[in-house]
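Predict structure. Chain length: 221.
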Amino acid sequence: GRWLPFDRLWAVAHDRARLDGGWGAKANFLRGVTEPQLMAATAALSDDGSTLTLDHPVAGQLTIAPDSDADTALLLDWLGRIWPAELPAPTGLYRADSAHLTDMPDPFISINNTASHRAVSQRVGQDLSIHRWRGNLWLDGLGPWQEFEWIGKEIRIGEATLAVRQRITRCKATMANPETGRRDADTLGALSTWDHQDFGVYAEVTHGGIIAAGDPVEVPA
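Prediction complete.
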């Protein structure tokens, strides 16, 4: 299995990080669970992958070359507008030698269900952005929580086959509004009414292939 191209390829390390060149645990990096303002940041990669454009309602817009140390000072200045001074200080972008910096060291792809999202929105009592969940793939046309029934089974999306491995347990980062960077919804409280704090599933590619928006999905009967 492999990760989606460019998914979480870089992360911002802080001055207490313990990294050895390979995959690093999320505690080594700046995260939205620590400072919700990070949840309002967006990132867009250029077509050739050489530049990364960051945008934030408070920090503004910044374009850098992510693999160039020359732009580190620009990045740190930009982060300083939203990252609290009392927290471990950012030191720059980190890229692992042969892994992506997802929450798990395994080459997982996160799959979310729009029906489950609507169920959480209804339970919270407000329309929630799907970007709170930071998912890779979104599936439509399912029943709420149907994805949890696929653990240990395979699904097919477009040309690819994926083995569904486990649920995704969520954290306080999902409580922050991705437009404002403020915590305004008790997503974890809503999930707990179903006796869990899980949303979405992790899957691993067992047969690679091209997938595209609107592709059919074959799920276990």
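Summary: The chain has a mean pLDDT of 97.
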